[in-house]
Specification:
Length: 218
């Protein structure tokens, strides 16, 4: 299924990748010389386990330097001011323990800080759909892995940042939450203000992907 191009909007963001290379020293490249313009809507980063999806997301998030090439988005660039770049991105490493010592509400406040277009009402409805209501006054360390992931997933979906990066978003989610996630992603596919890159080993056949990128891409 193909969505109409939200790139036609005058202020639509565009992530420009020029000869992007991703990999680790002494190992075969995971991504060799990728040049692309990613516009608003959904991009699927597909590939088997170990193909490099998480590593590419970390590079797009400005959390890991590329092995070569450049990235540009909304006046920011990499290599360049990495803090300016990160302000444009919503990214949470699924393996992070950074929020364990916080309460759920403090975690949400942290994730939505410096995000003026964050949609509070959307976050509330996602938190409801994800079954988070009974957990909002708990500490993050008290939540199951799936519930912890739902907290930042709801923040990611409600974010107003130009670039949202989701790593295996269905991992550890129950069936009802996966349905809510799919509905939220279907809405984002039509959002002209946001570029959403999803790394996943699943095909997601019902969503309107604007672009599918298969890894490894040498
Ligand atoms: N710090 C590192 N140093 C060297 N190699 C690494 C490092 N981190 C990851 N790798 C290797 O890079 C490759 C890609 O890993 P990555 O986690 O990006 O894959 P993935 O597609 O996200 O896998 P999965 O679907 O299992 O999460 C793997 O072979 C992994 O062992």
């Amino acid at each position: 299924m193909n969505a109409p191009s939200p790139l036609a909007e005058p202020d639509a963001p565009c992530l420009q990748l020029q000869d992007l290379r991703v990999g680790f020293d002494g190992e075969a490249p995971l991504l060799g010389r990728w040049s692309a313009r990613l516009g608003p809507g959904l991009t699927l980063l597909a590939g088997d386990t170990g193909s490099g999806k998480s590593t590419v997301l970390r590079v797009l998030a400005g959390e890991q330097p590329a092995a070569g090439g450049t990235l540009a988005l909304a006046g920011a660039a990499l290599p360049g001011d990495v803090n300016a770049w990160r302000r444009l991105c919503f990214w949470v490493d699924p393996a992070t323990r950074a929020f364990h010592e916080m309460g759920v509400r403090d975690c949400v406040a942290r994730l939505r800080a410096d995000d003026p277009a964050f949609d509070d009402a959307h976050w509330q409805s996602l938190a409801e759909a994800f079954g988070l209501a009974p957990h909002l006054d708990k500490g993050m360390h008290m939540l199951s892995t799936g519930s912890r992931r739902k907290v930042w997933l709801a923040c990611a979906l409600a974010s107003g940042r130009a670039l949202t990066l989701l790593d295996e978003p269905t991992a550890a989610l129950d069936a009802a939450s996966i349905r809510a996630l799919q509905a939220a992603l279907a809405a984002l596919a039509q959002d002209a203000r946001r570029i959403v890159v999803v790394a996943s080993g699943e095909p997601w056949p019902t969503l309107a992907w604007r672009q599918r990128v298969q890894l490894p891409m040498a």
